[in-house]
Specification:
Blueprint (H helix, E strand, L loop, with lengths): L3 H10 L1 H6 L7 E6 L3 H12 L4 E4 L15 H6 L1 H20 L11 H25 L3 E3 L2 E6 L2 E5 L5 E11 L3 E3 L7 H4 L3 H4 L9 E4 L3 H12 L4 E5 L9 H13 L3 E4 L1 E10 L5 E8 L5 E6 L1 E4 L3 E3 L6 H4 L23 E3 L11 H16 L13 E3 L5 E5 L2 H8 L4 E8 L2 H6 L6 E8 L5 E8 L3 H13 L4 H6 L30
Parallel strand pairs: 1-2, 1-6, 2-3, 6-16, 8-9, 8-14, 9-10
Antiparallel strand pairs: 4-5, 5-6, 7-15, 11-12, 12-13, 17-18, 18-21, 19-20, 20-21
Helix pairs in contact: 3-12, 5-6, 5-9
Length: 509
């Protein structure tokens, strides 16, 4: 509790008495608020360790009325439907390629695709509920809000309220898409919350934003044959390696995506109702007085996400949040400033917003709380992939960050273009796919940044991420025999450095 002053304050507020009470006086050992990846992982691990656990999960419908089942963003409106739609778009590209291999073309049907994807998601929702039931975790489909120390109020869809107490709480409420705050945005625009279950083909679409969500959605829609424009306020993929980000954008532009750079929307007006209807968008330049107008069937906002922490009574028990972002500061064991309250997932301040990170953090948190484990979640060298039409996988530092941390003169960057064998007969560009590693010259040329732009980049990156955890060096890559013909083998034959200035264009496979 700290010094005697804080202890006395805790006694006056009643917190000290509650902390000294036996856990058996509470309804539950642990209540998890949020039924997404991190929350479910934590709840189930705690139950395996013999604790009495409840999960509260409630999806507030989007402004367009979209809601979903148990499993959180990843399962319902994130990773899973995104990757499946990405696969649909890749199949479209493969069909184009297949003409060179002797196949005939077929037509895409939006409704068939979304129905199949939603059926799969429904099976995952049911699987999560079944898993909780098998582990004797109580699942309550209600909105959780703290009313006092160790007590929450759960409100269901009918407005009925129930009170529960627990010795410990884990907040895993995740984030929801941000809106622009302009005329017509919530009335007429959709977000990733709505896209994957949209009952009609969106038609000509304006995607607002330059995040990975924006570029992934734009890539999917373009791959399905739609007319897509991306409106970008500043840079693509902020926080990612900017050379790779620009290569991603360049590929998308060459394959049909239009970019409007340095513009932001100021108004969205409905011209016609329909499925889809017609919308007029007025946008202004970020660099001057210029304004432009455009007409689209659908406007998809992907400008960022806001933490779901502001309306759950955290102020009533003294949990601190970042007033600007809503993020929750935690220590190295995911503990908030209130000792019995923890948090995992996208709502953490300064941590990665990735599903596997939330799952790992949730499991390890439960093991520390109830299993005597000391292992903490390692947030360093976490791999990720942006599922744009040409996938971008990375692990470790961007080139910009590496220069900031280690200084340019202490680094060696090896890079090359490569030409996947599958692209050769199809006649696709032999100088588009790109590989890059960043090495620390004064640490045995240890690989501190791994970047690949090419087919199946996620699959390629996952294996190399494990190697980076083990201290991968340039010499170890050189000593590794590649699998031929694959994309991943390019990292075993990297020779050209950026500092050499030598040509990296490819002449053959």
């Amino acid at each position: 509790m700290g010094g005697c002053d804080r202890t006395f304050q805790a006694h006056q507020s009643g917190l000290l008495q509650k902390l000294l009470q036996e856990d058996s006086t509470y309804d539950y050992d642990l209540i998890v608020i949020g039924g997404g990846s991190g929350g479910l992982a934590c709840a189930q691990e705690a139950a395996i360790l013999g604790k009495k656990v409840m999960v509260l999960d409630f999806v507030v419908p989007s402004p367009q009325g979209t809601s979903w089942g148990l499993g959180g963003t990843c399962v319902n409106v994130g990773c899973v439907p995104k990757k499946l739609m990405h696969q649909a778009a890749l199949l479209g590209q493969a069909l184009n390629d297949s003409r060179k291999f002797g196949w005939e073309y077929v037509k895409h049907n939006w409704e068939t695709m979304t129905e199949a994807i939603q059926n799969h998601i429904s099976s995952l929702n049911w699987g999560h509920r079944l898993s909780l039931r098998e582990k004797s975790v109580d699942y309550v489909n209600s909105y959780g809000e703290f009313v006092e120390h160790h007590r929450i109020k759960a409100t269901n869809r009918k407005g009925q309220e129930t009170s529960y107490t627990a010795a410990k709480f884990v907040i895993a409420t995740g984030e929801r898409p941000r809106y622009l705050g302009i005329q017509g945005d919530k009335e007429y625009c959709i977000t990733s919350d709505d896209l994957f279950s949209l009952p009609y083909c969106p038609g000509k679409t304006l995607v607002v934003g330059a995040s990975y969500v924006a570029l992934e959605c734009a890539g999917v829609l373009t791959g399905l044959g739609l007319d897509v424009t991306v409106m970008v306020r500043s840079v693509l993929l902020r926080g990612f390696d900017q050379e790779m980000a620009e290569r991603v954008g360049s590929y998308m532009e060459q394959h049909g995506v239009k970019f409007l750079r340095k513009f932001i929307p100021v108004m969205v007006k409905q011209l016609e109702k329909g499925s889809p209807g017609k919308l007029k968008v007025v946008a202004k330049s970020t660099e001057g007085p210029e304004t432009i107008e455009g007409v689209y069937n659908t406007v998809l906002l992907a400008i960022g996400r806001d933490s779901c922490t502001r309306k759950m009574g955290l102020d009533k028990i003294g949990v601190k949040i970042n007033k600007k972002t809503g993020k929750i500061p935690v220590n190295d064991v995911e503990q908030t400033n209130v000792p019995y309250v923890y948090a995992v997932g996208d709502i953490l301040e300064g941590k990665l917003e990735l599903t596997p990170v939330a799952i790992q953090a949730g499991k390890l948190l439960a093991r520390r709380l109830f299993g005597g484990c000391l292992e903490k979640c390692d947030y360093i060298n976490v791999p990720t992939t942006v599922f744009t039409p040409l996938e971008y996988g990375c692990c470790g530092l961007s080139e910009e960050k590496a220069i900031e941390v280690y200084k340019k003169e202490n680094l060696e960057v090896y890079h090359t273009f490569f030409w996947p064998l599958e692209w050769t007969v199809a006649g696709r560009d032999n100088n588009t796919c790109y590989a890059k590693i960043i090495c620390n010259k004064f640490d045995n040329y240890r690989v501190i940044g791994f970047h690949v732009l090419g087919p199946n980049a996620g699959e390629v990156t996952q294996g190399f991420a494990a190697a980076m955890k083990c201290g991968l060096t340039k010499q170890l890559l050189d000593d590794t025999i590649g699998i031929h013909p694959t994309c991943g083998e390019v990292f075993t034959t990297l020779e050209i450095t950026k500092s050499s200035g030598l040509d990296i264009t490819q002449k053959g496979c």
